[in-house]
Design goal:
Number of strands: 6
Order of helices and strands: HEHHEHEHEEEHH
Largest sheet: 3 strands, parallel
CATH architecture: 3-Layer(aba) Sandwich
Number of domains: 1
Helix content: 25-40%
Radius of gyration: 20 Å
Shape: globular
Strand order of the largest sheet: 1-2-3
CATH class: Alpha Beta
CATH superfamily: Creatininase
Length: 288
Amino acid sequence: MPDTDRPASHCLLDLAPPDIQWFLDRSDIVLVPIGSCEQHGAHLPLGTDTITALEVARRAAAKSDVPYAPPFWAGYSPQHMRETEAGVGTITFRAATLVEAWYDICRSLIHHGWNKLVFVNGHGSNTKIIDPLLRRVRYETGAFVALYKPYAERYMGMIGDLLENPPDETPGWHASELETSQVLAHDEALVRMDRAADDRAQAPPWLPKTFLKQDGAPDVEFQGYQYFVFPMDHGEFSQTGVIGNPFRATAEKGEQALERFADHLAAAIDEFRPLEVEITRRAFEERV
């Protein structure tokens, strides 16, 4: 017999209260995609990181039959603002503001009955500030809270065989082969390959010549070792906003990458299902 009450969507924005209850009766897990609104070169949209988070969360939710929150489209991106009136369009939240927004999302979801929250993060710099939030939610409420990072930067992981760029071209880096492929898989109309650039990171001129910057990671190399980190803007080490070669990107690669990440997350969700979680504080009493 078909389940006539089954919701037509897994996204909370599409659901009414009876649909929410349908999911809660079957699972205490909810996904929370988070991304950014920041420049990704001249060929990709500002929502590239949010697209990654949304696509992986949407696919994993469908595979696992759990709901996902609407994607939180802005992130921690101060390094992508560029000069005043540069017009790149990046919208960044201050760290404290963003953490409080994520906190309110978590407390709202816990208030409604979910015990296990999994952030699906498409933007690397969000990880710089999210740890206090994850700990705060766990310590205050007892909820199970996790961060999933479906992207590849230095760590190619399960998609190393999928990408063609050699390691010295940092194949997963900013607006390069992987991100371009994933946006192509999402909507080819959003990608303008006629504007794309093949570029590499360079150390900013204010650093001594003995310091090397080879990719978009925070680390800077000195005497062959990466023990230094400096606060620097993306424009100081990448004029185009691209780090790597996006010209090997294809929609097929993007589809495979998104599916692999979604399958991996869905497998983890199955492991999370039987975990017993005791919520010590469910009501969101400070909601005003």
